Amino acid sequence: MAHNLLKGKKGIIFGALDEKSIAWSTALRCVEEGAEIVLTNAPIALRMGEINKLAELCKAPVIPADVTNMDDLKNLFTKSMEHFGGKIDFVLHSVGMSINMRKGKSYTDLDYDFSHKTFDISAMSLHRVLQTAYQLDALNEWASVVALTYIAAQRVFPDYSEMADAKSMLESISRSFGFHYGLKNKVRVNTISQSPTKTTAGGGVKGFDGFISYAEKMSPLGNATAQQCADYCVVMFSDMTRMVTMQNLFHDGGFSFTGVSAAVIEQMEK
């Protein structure tokens, strides 16, 4: 059900790969709520994914951009403003990748070249996106930037490896840049810490099905779905949350503040 929460707004969605992606669901919801969007992803992801299908559904252009390449990002924001005929109102950063995890390397045996790529793609990319927008003056007053994160930034999930470090950095960047962008142009920057979600990227984490089952048993409301996260992103992009910035917002059915649940105890006693 649409409420026109984003009527007249224009945004960029990073990271939609396929129908399992949170970015995919968010793109559809933004358009349903009245927004115009530009879709973007790395060139290799565009070849591997189904973004052209999403572009047709959303009537949105696709502008390739490697989030580690400043020229690509400048081109993305410049062409997006040309497409929209003005500045941008919201950005979703839904980007993350760990070669160490893909290669099955444990946290105590990291390949540091791989780790540098993890941090660059999964965390520093947010700084690059924000710095590019800041220097190009690409975002309207009261624009909203949201980056997706995970509670492994605060708690140890052994198989999440150095992605946990990357998410910690991502959250720190959102706070630090949120301060500067708030002063400059009242732009708000937040992270959403989502429940473990069955995306193509999430499926690469060792023991991921166990993550999901455990979180479901721990959360009084159960796990939040990709579609529900998309709803939350829409609210954060809307004018209803103008005074929310520099926050890490848990969207996990209560998992983040639950010590233990009866369902988990029962499972352990079996």
From TrEMBL:
The keyword Signal does not apply. GO terms for molecular function: enoyl-[acyl-carrier-protein] reductase (NADH) activity. GO terms for biological process: fatty acid biosynthetic process. SUPFAM superfamilies: NAD(P)-binding Rossmann-fold domains. The active site is at 150 (proton acceptor), 160 (proton acceptor). Its EC number is 1.3.1.9. It catalyses: a 2,3-saturated acyl-[ACP] + NAD(+) = a (2E)-enoyl-[ACP] + NADH + H(+). InterPro entries: Enoyl-ACP_Rdtase_NADH, NAD(P)-bd_dom_sf, SDR_fam. Pathway: Lipid metabolism; fatty acid biosynthesis. Belongs to the short-chain dehydrogenases/reductases (SDR) family. FabI subfamily. This is Enoyl-[acyl-carrier-protein] reductase [NADH].
